[in-house]
């Protein structure tokens, strides 16, 4: 009878030790998952800040590019006005000195110069548009890559939370 009681007692102690070890393992897993979730939150916050910083940087670059292009365009327009003004002054001086045929020749030359300036101005506008399109494309590609990283992190966080909830349910069921 004593040996059966001793065996039952030893078996009970072994089961208690096994339960205690399982509880310790579950607690350690829960701590690891909690630490992982916290680390992923911190990483998610870091990526969000990087995303915001990149967005602000790109917005500043775009604003600066637009300002630079506007300034350049104003300079081109002022240069065009100056050139046209100069051509008009020269034409007026010549009107006093030349007869009708010479006047007609000067008008033809003036029109050709004006057309050349218009063509030159159109080329500047095309260059400006091309630069803006490139800047926008680069910004959109960078933004898309950062958003994908954020999405991937959110998915990993969701999986970790699901695993934690599952393990919590497993721990409740095993008790």
Spell out the blueprint of helices and strands.
Layout lengths: L1 H96 L2 H75 L1
Helix pairs in contact: 1-2
Can you offer a commentary on this structure?
This protein has helices at residues 2-97, 100-174. It has 175 residues and is mainly alpha-helical. α1 (2-97) runs antiparallel to α2 (100-174).
Concise synopsis of the structure shown:
This protein has 2 helices and no strands. It is an all-alpha fold.
Indicate the mean pLDDT: 86
Secondary-structure-derived class: mainly alpha
Range of strand content: under 5%
Tell me roughly what share of residues is in helical segments. Answer: over 70%
Uncertain stretches: none
Number of strands: 0
From the spread of the alpha carbons, the general shape counts as rod-shaped
Radius of gyration: 39 Å
- For the termini, the CA-CA separation is 31 Å
Q: Can you summarize the main beta sheet?
A: none
- What is the string of helix and strand elements? HH
Count of DSSP H/I helices: 2
List descriptors.
175 residues; mainly alpha; rod-shaped
């Amino acid at each position: 009878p004593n040996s059966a009681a001793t065996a039952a007692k030893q078996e009970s102690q072994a089961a208690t030790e096994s339960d205690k070890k399982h509880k310790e393992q579950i607690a350690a897993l829960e701590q690891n998952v909690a630490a992982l979730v916290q680390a992923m939150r911190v990483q998610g916050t870091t990526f969000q800040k990087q995303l915001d910083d990149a967005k602000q940087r790109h917005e500043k670059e775009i604003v600066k590019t637009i300002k630079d292009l506007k300034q350049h365009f104003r300079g081109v327009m002022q240069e065009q006005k100056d050139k046209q003004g100069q051509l008009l002054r020269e034409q007026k001086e010549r009107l006093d000195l030349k007869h009708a045929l010479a006047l007609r020749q000067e008008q033809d030359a003036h029109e050709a110069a004006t057309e050349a300036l218009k063509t030159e101005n159109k080329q500047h506008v095309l260059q400006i548009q091309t630069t803006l399109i490139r800047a926008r494309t680069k910004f959109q590609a960078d933004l898309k890559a950062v958003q994908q990283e954020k999405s991937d992190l959110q998915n990993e966080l969701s999986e970790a939370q699901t695993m934690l909830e599952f393990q919590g349910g497993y721990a409740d069921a095993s008790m």
